[in-house]
Amino acid sequence: MLIRESVLFQRATAQGLHAGSVRTQAMANRSLNVVREGLQAYADRGVFRGFSEAKAGRGEHTFTFEWLSRRPLSFTVDTEKGVLKFKNILPGVPLKSALYSELKQFVNERHDGALPEHRRIDRRRAEVTCSNRGGAVSIALRVKKNQYAYGVNKIVNLAHEIFVHLKDHYADYLWESFDAPQE
Fold first, then answer.
1. Which helix (H) or strand (E) holds 66?
2. What is the tens place of the pLDDT at every residue in 113-158?
3. Are 144 and 155 in contact (CB under 8 A)?
4. pTM
5. Cα distances (Å, whole numbers) of residue 66 to 6, 50, 95
6. Residue 47, helix vs strand vs coil
7. DSSP state letter for 107
8. Is the pLDDT confidence value at 1 over 50?
9. Hey, where are the domains in the chain?
10. Which of 77, 108, 124, 168 sits in a 20 to 30 Å window from 142, CA-based?
11. Residues 6 or more apart in contact with residue 142 via CB below 8 angstroms
12. Which conformational region is residue 64 in: left (phi greater than 0), alpha (psi within -120 to 50 degrees), or beta?
């Protein structure tokens, strides 16, 4: 890996590119590869189905796969901002609803030191938020200090926990929005 980066650095310098931008791009590529490998591991184990990747824009890549429902999920990685996001993971959630209010609280509680370590998100390594645009809820995790492997694991676990929570407390929402079995 270091030899490849050295060769890229030499080529970039020969072309008159700034060394800092070359290092930044190399770090972004490493970060993206960490995320890609983490998500691919879930796909290889059969957790995700129909796994695919597309470049979305400057510093962004989008991965699409089926998981937790038959509806494809969009997972975006922005290496410039250090953000991992499940975009529109929950459709049809009114902004002022009890469901959204409780969901925000549930997501914020993932930073609580009282939670077991495997369920907790350490604020020194990452911070999670949720947002609602037009009734579509997204969850985002901003990684700190290049903690992308940690971030992938935590946001995937959080998404799973959200669906378990919904099954226990808002089963009717899952039935209506995801055609989930009524068990």
1. strand 60-66
2. 999 999 999 999 999 999 999 999 999 999 999 999 999 999 999 9
3. no
4. 0.84
5. 38, 6, 25
6. coil
7. H
8. no
9. 2-178
10. 168
11. 81, 82, 83, 126, 127, 128, 129
12. beta
